[in-house]
Amino acid sequence: MSRMSRMSRIRVLVGTRKGAFVLSADGKRNHWEISGPHFPGWEIYHLKGSPVDPNRLYASQSSGWFGQQIQRSEDGGQTWAPVGNKFVYDGVPGTHQWYDGTPHPWEFARVWHLEPSLTDPDTVYAGVEDAGLFRSGDGGQTWSELSGLRGHATGSSWQPGAGGLCLHTIVQDPSDARRLFVAISAAGAFRSDDAGLTWRPINRGLKSDYIPDPTAEVGHCVHHMAMHPARPKVLFMQKHWDVMRSDDGGENWREVSGNLPTDFGFPIDVHAHEPDTIFVVPIKSDTEHFPPEGKLRVYRSRSGGDEWEPLTQGLPQRDCYVNVLRDAMAVDALDPCGIYFGTTGGQVYASADGGERWAPIVRDLPAVVSVEVQTLP
Amino acid sequence: MIRVVLPAPLRVLAWIEGEALLPVPEPVTLRGVLGALEARYPALLGTLRDQVSQRRRPMIRFFACEEDWSHQSPDAPLPLSVARGDEPLLIVGAIAGG
Prior knowledge:
The complex is a heterodimer of chains A (377) and B (98).
Chain A: E1 9-16, E2 19-26, E3 33-38, E4 43-49, E5 57-63, E6 67-73, E7 81-82, E8 95-97, E9 103-105, E10 110-116, E11 124-129, E12 132-136, E13 144-145, E14 166-172, E15 180-185, E16 188-192, E17 200-201, E18 222-227, E19 235-239, E20 243-246, E21 254-255, E22 265-270, E23 278-282, E24 298-301, E25 309-311, E26 329-331, E27 339-342, E28 348-351, E29 359-362, E30 368-376
Antiparallel strand pairs in A: 1-2, 1-30, 2-3, 4-5, 5-6, 6-7, 8-9, 10-11, 11-12, 12-13, 14-15, 15-16, 16-17, 18-19, 19-20, 20-21, 22-23, 23-24, 24-25, 26-27, 27-28, 28-29
Chain B: E1 2-5, H1 8-14, E2 20-22, H2 30-40, E3 60-64, E4 67-68, H3 80-83, E5 89-93
């Protein structure tokens, strides 16, 4: 990731339960302009910009009443227009397992995550609930399922997590355009080496005591995965308990939870310039889903896991009972690297110095679902 | 012209001010009105009914002349006063919550 100058601008894209917000600042990251709410009243699960054309943004807008919309902006989020929202599973969809173990038809519910291509602004991937991967090659106007994933031999055995059977993480390998990674709750991690045509589970080394066979090929509740673009064989994972690391493109995983106060959490991200520096937000579970001891702490490892240090300066250290959801953490490409995360209490916190000191950019948004960051020239 | 009143979020989505006014061929049915509405305002595709099955979304209701048409056949003729434009077809987001 290039170290852009402090003359750069930062744009933070925030999806919330009741609309989208665009937060902007110069490279000093001191003073922020807040734009929004865009799509007020609608759930915005995710919005993300094209790495090739940063003013091209995609947003997932949904509602329990009115269903799914995909919005596209050509001017960095100032104006938006709806594009295609027809997500139809390929062929006869069949069934997956329901919570009670009975077969349940695959039903499209919403788009959890939009991942624009690294090379083409018109190509974008959508991870959806019930778990499937769709691709658009025309800027979101039309969508086709990459059905080799859902059609994997294990597909009929996948069961939803508490949030639904959702495909929430899509990672592209910048060194190999044919390699894609996805994660599904609660099926696990999968990899394609042929641009999404065929897939295989990559869960060796994961151990989940909440399933009948803790080391099964599928059934693991992966919460999020992250990769540093300069080291695409190394993956980090926050699982429903356990922080994991793979050094071989997901073939094998090992636990790196180390001294974390709890190894449960949702987001995980990698420093822009230090591939072995990673960030998580430990959360108490199984039922609480708020920070231990009421202290909101980001934990940083500079050794790629195992050894962790709490980052607390500027974060509430008493009476804090928010959550940080899986897509609600991101980093910028400046030097020093900026780290950003949003909470279910509506705060978006930022650190402009690699995590040492934190301050809220904004405090009172609706519950934050996702945070993405663009570093603009 | 058929008059259609939409929920506020859909008026914003489709850039509709006030009522939508639509020419709909006779006999005027729910299917005909929805087809005309979606053709004029493509942003509404999928918001009222599934794009493949054409089934009404669960939390959408259709009211006409103080009657609930949500469970009627989409091919049943709507009331004459709606077909004449005297009364609007009301499309309502179901009340949900506490």
